[in-house]
Task: structure prediction
Amino acid sequence: MDQNNLIVYIEHEDGRVADVSLELLTKGRVLADRLGVKLEAVAAGADLDTIGEQIFPYGVDRLYKVTDKRLSPYTSNPHSAVLINLFREIKPQICLMGATCIGRDLGPRVSSCLHSGLTADCTALEIGDHTDPKTGTEYKDLLLQIRPAFGGNIVATIVNPECRPQMATVREGVMKRQVLDPAYKGETIELDASKYVSDEDFVVEILDRHIEKSKINIKNSPIIVAGGYGVGSKENFQLLHELADTLGAEVGASRAAVDAGFTEHARQIGQTGVTVRPKLYIACGISGQIQHIAGMQESSIIISINNDPAAPINTIADYVINGNIEDVVPKLIKYYKKNSK
Result:
């Protein structure tokens, strides 16, 4: 059975499909159409009854279900075995998964075993042609795996000409999530778990799980006030919290601000943090390194407050306020408070 299709690994918790998987299905549908192949998905676990109805509207043609209560919650060996053995059978052209703690564990295991290579933390995925500069060999319709490299100084396009599947992980929020057709119906193939995973793979048993939900909800906030190294201090970050409270916003930060100890890592936005797309993004003292821009460039309106007129973030900002945070932010707070009564 050689389908040579595009497949997405479905992450789920308590029967609910993770947002990152739905985002990858949206992108996967576009890529599959470009290649003229089917979009497939694979889900392994115990509570898979509603997975199909959740993912088919995104344009999924075929869902492979591997049901076994021992496959929930996720553990490395069993899920790796399922994918490795299934991929040997169906030989997908492309496999996409989330750059989550599960995807970061699973992706390298599968790609290493299949000798296929893997590009982590992609910010864009496209289909295109590639010519090997050494041999002159031309390759058609490869997965172009795009991500910042060398500390973010360049954007690299990585290709995998020979080995299959071409594998990539993508962070939550990087791709847009969009239902293709609420009535779209794909087929479901129930796989016998014992054919893909052996009893020896279940050597690790989870005795207890504790999941702490984050109290900071940057990803879903319509307004974000974000601070960079240019904010200058932890005290000045309090000004951003005051502005956020006034606007009903959430406070975010660049990596430089987090590394400087101005705020906690849970607020970090960018390639090594959260990807966001709010209606309004107010960037305070953020220079605009490529990794940070990768995490917020989809914002509807961007306002940059910076004392450096040449800051790179100003080039993508809709409005630029040139000045010091200590002067500008208190004025904004005063103005918003006065006009919101």
In short: The chain has a mean pLDDT of 89. The longest strand covers residues 138-149. The longest helix spans residues 19-35.
